[in-house]
Design a protein that fits this description.
By secondary structure, this protein is mainly alpha-helical. The protein has a domain at about 75-115. About 75% of the residues lie in helices and about 5% in strands.
Amino acid sequence: MKGFKICNNNHFFKSSVGYCPHCVLLLEESIFLNDSKNNISEVDKLKNIINDLNLKIESQNKIITYLKSKVKTPNNDKSKKIEILDALKYLKSKKTKTKKDKESIYTLEMVLKNM
């Protein structure tokens, strides 16, 4: 046909255009599809990375929880109470008590009473 050409995919197009518009559309569609596939795969990669990080965080939290359960921490209330009782016992056992000792005994007894 005069004024028309045939491309490699057997499409007819005007010779004045210089290229096959059908192939250009197919090429643009394939580029778009490949880009969207790549975007999906990038999103999947990011999701996988996030899932891996979440798993690592969960496993670290489990390890921390396990270690906390194994560590024996003294009960602060009991240790403070024992400390006050020891101080009170010492002050009461003194043969000669000063005015300061008597005030301290009274204060420690009141602290114990309020615990």
